[in-house]
Amino acid sequence: MNDSILKTIGVAFSVCLVCSLIVSSAAVSLRDLQNENKLNDRRIKVLQVADIYNPNESISEQFNQLESKFIDFKTGMLMDEYNNFSLEDYDQVVATKNPNLSSRVPTSKDIAIIKNRENVGKIYILRNNLGSVDKLILPIRGYGLWGTLYGYISIEDDFNTVSGIEFYEHKETPGLGAEVDNPNWKNSWKGKKIYKNNEVVLSVIKGKVDNTDSLAAYKVDGLSGATITSRGVSNMVSYWFGESGYSQLLKELDYES
Ligand SMILES: Cc1cc2nc3c(=O)[nH]c(=O)nc-3n(C[C@H](O)[C@H](O)[C@H](O)COP(=O)(O)O)c2cc1C
Description:
- The chain is an alpha+beta fold.
- It has 2 domains: 1-65, no CATH class; 66-256, no CATH class.
- The chain has 6 helices and 12 strands.
- The radius of gyration is 23 Å and the shape is globular.
- The protein starts with a helix and ends with a helix.
- The structure holds flavin mononucleotide.
- Flavin mononucleotide binds at residues 145, 172-173, 176-177, 224-229.
């Protein structure tokens, strides 16, 4: 009989089997493409934060304008080699999952709540026509309200002035914490100063910056209704520009220039 229970189950099972095969083969065959798109998204953010992104040109060609370097966070030294990693493939966030390549951040110092910091990071350098440093593009990350925000800050050749900020991944709420992606807010970072007397002073305040304030250059408007995300961004700036992050490198470069 055509409407027997066994036949119905058999048809349902076959449909499920065919569908699951289609879905799993699509997932497998699209994995490389998804990874490539993810990499490209990140590269676009690096190009945008360096203010050199042109959507009409090839991403990889534009990316080649940048020089990448490993940074040893213990010494602040830039390196071209690190173990057997290639500069192109090294992913410092992946390295934080490997105890041989990362270190636990003591709770008292973990202001950005990153838990593990890679021993060696990767930064990008944009050089001018004369070959000297024009901008540095430095990865930053830290916890907001719902999860870790991952992004980049670019700084000018005085190694103290912000030239841009971009986030490529976060879990903050649209309209609240996700306003970290608002172009007006990102623009307001341009020209802000990080260090004053060797201390990281730059922070996202609550409310609007009063431009008559003598410390206005060290303050960024808070994201309204998103004090926790704002604090998270301040904390990640303090952490990554502090002694566990880029401060040794930046001091070194400043003495050289
Ligand atoms: C559904 C929901 C989503 C929220 N998302 C965020 C967020 O992404 N970032 C944030 O800082 N605060 C977020 N908040 C608000 C925080 O809980 C908290 O009230 C706020 O950070 C306080 O900021 P305020 O002092 O500027 O009002 C959210 C609240 C709700 C109810």
